Every structure is written in C-alpha cells, then in structure tokens.
Amino acid sequence: MPLSQRAPLWRALQAMTFSAFALPFAAAADETSPAAGLPLDEQVQYCGSCHGSDGNSSQAGTPSLAGQPALSITNQLIYFRERLRQSEIMTPQARGLADEEIQALADHYADQPVAEPTEERDADLATKGQDIVASRGCASCHSSDYSGREQMPRLAGQREDYLAGAMQAYRDRTRGGPDTTMIDIMRGFSDEEIEAMAHYLAHFEE
Description:
single chain; 206 residues; mainly alpha
C-alpha cells in the first residue's frame, strides 16, 4: 500500500485504539474489573476477547501479548490499575486485579509463542525501516532481536498497526504513563519513517 494511503489508516486505527471500541464485558471506570478474582484460565479467556486466545491479537489496533517480557506486562497492568496510565479500555479492565493475578497473567503471556504476521512483507519498506531503527539504536533497550527485556516491550512480531499507532502517540505526546523516555526518542519522526519502522519490526527476520 502506498505511503499516502497508509497514514490515514494509521490515524484511524490509533483513534480506535484509544477510544472507539470497547470490550464486550467493559467495566465502568469506577468498578472492579470483571476479571478480578477469576481463575487464571478464565482471566485469559476474558483478555483473549481482544488480545487473542493465544495472546496474538487479530483485532485492529490491539497489541499482541504473546512473547512479551513478563515484567513489561506486569508494569503496564499496574500502571493501568493505579491510573498512572489512562485508557478508556484498559484502565477499567485492570482495576481491582491483585498483584498476584497480574503476575500470573504476565507469566502466562510471556510463555506464549509469537505468531507469524499475516500481512505480506514489503522488502523495500522493511529495508528502510531497518536502517532507521539501526541508526536510532533501538536495540540498545529492546535487545538485538527486538524481543524486549525486563520492562522493555517486545517489538518483533507485534502488530504493525499497533506499533505505528504507539509510536505516533509518543511523538504527538498523547500516550500517557510514567515513563517518558519514548516521547523524547520519537520527537521529530515523520509518519513515513514510523510506517517503515513499524513494518520492519512487525516482519522482523533475524
């Protein structure tokens, strides 16, 4: 798809990610998550309605959790639970989850294999993205294979639309949370550069 056609799609997907769609079981902002207190297998089923039954999301704008470092998932769920990171979708889902439940969910998803991307790889776009990613030293935090480490999320094999939307949100300073490192890193990137990086990382090949 040409660059000029992809950018509007990203903006639409980014808007969906942060506001437009809701979980089938969405809880009101001041309520405890319906998943709180359930057995792990039922919590996984609940989360799977958006993030995929095996942690590999097929829903536009929704991140895959499979293969993410456990600490990365743990931190983000705690941020949502404590409203350190606000999301119309995720904040209500994390409210009331105990630390032990969050850790169990994180460990579960960290052990799930990452699915191959379903979209076709564009070799030229991937090469452009590879050059940008290498020049910005993304591997210094996210590991040489972009599998993430500790609190740093996995980028390799993540949904392309989610990666693009997240990077745009950092650049535009619309993504909340206590860690502002990525806001500084993404400053000044064009939509075309973000598109290339997202494509390369989603289709990463060692």
